[in-house]
Design brief:
The chain is mostly helical.
Length: about 45
């Protein structure tokens, strides 16, 4: 075991972090899609 495995600074769950990252990126592209759809309907 090396020194980095002994002294872990972050003990959070990686699955939660990856889920949050997925949610943020999904929300970003969903908002872009909604904005593009609104522009297409209005214009």
């Amino acid at each position: 075991m090396n020194q980095f495995e002994k002294n872990v600074q972050y003990k959070g769950n990686d699955a939660i972090d990856s889920g949050i990252g997925f949610g943020v990126s999904f929300a970003f592209f969903a908002i872009m899609f909604i904005i593009a759809t609104v522009i297409k309907l209005v214009g």
